[in-house]
């Protein structure tokens, strides 16, 4: 539902943030990043189109007056209002939908994805797409299509239940197309995937430039998530085909792509982005807001901060801690951060694992903390165990606080840490435990690493640098006829050589 805010800023450059599951309805690293941008640019006008779960999620951030509106677009609540198409309109939409599905399932037909997507976008704007996808004809189109000779998905013998499931998932995924598309300014998608859909519609319909920032690699995270999803292969083929081609279209159409690290850049180039359209912009923190943390705890303690989510791989961290405790029986593991709605089962699984390994007394889930600095100060070493990251705030915040870190080698972690912390392979409890023990056993090394980490943040990853860069980007895209002097100092970072990078094809 729309949330009205302050008075319109007449004449101010307008930025529409496109989010999914984050700002302004939840906490977390991406939400912090959005809030930093908004709070840091009171001279611009911001709107937010937020893809949410049910649409009943409250706004949990204090929004300044220059955020002039928030529109929640629920993916899993009541469907968008509208009526099924009739006559020739129904036939045109059916033909476009068949072309859309063919592109998802037949590599030879992928060029049909974009034209079909924009027909679906217009139908969503007219209120006919969702009713069409919830009717029998959409099911019949898919059941007829994926049994055609020559399609790989045919070999999996898709069923009517598969068709119902895949069609329902697509109907939900395409709901953001029904949101009113921005008509002026810049549309800034702060992740890939479905959040981009209103931005693509705005570009196609009104010529509004699209800016895309990926903190994690959305497509990679969909691949990871659907690997264990409870769907048969035909369903996964449709949905992952959609996310892959949506990523390609987003990369192709974006006026500028601003990944938070060079690792993301590799995926974006492999996905079809023009290297000249990519500009790496690192996340930043205010070193004054994250000062040196002070004395360490007397008891050997590992701390972790983040949301309790499978992508954070707390199970590996708990297994690593069990190995640490075999060497240091008094060690503790303190986990700070909330559990998102729907993630309760994962937290319970992690708690059960700690109990099963015999360490429930030393592993504590402490929930959200009023001051995140306390989470970093709570440990002698700050841990990060994720299997996917962009350029994690928790890591550079801990570094700013002068704590030594042990992190998994994912996303932009190695770029952030440099030689001021230890980096280990993901999903490797033994390597993580060895690194933690190495630091817990050497106070002088921890202190030296922490001091070097804080200096690295001050030199390279400040919030001021991030805000200045994005203000210049917004002005450059919204007013291309005016050269922004600050843009002349923005560095385009070349991608490193790629060794053994596989295809992103499904």
UniProtKB/TrEMBL annotation:
Residues covered by the DUF3492 domain: 14-276
Domain of life: Bacteria
UniProt-listed Gene3D superfamilies: Glycogen Phosphorylase B
A Pfam family: Glyco_trans_1_4
Entries under NCBIfam families matching the protein: PelF (NF038011)
Protein's name according to its UniProt entry: D-inositol 3-phosphate glycosyltransferase
Organism: Streptomyces tibetensis
Gene name per UniProt: pelF
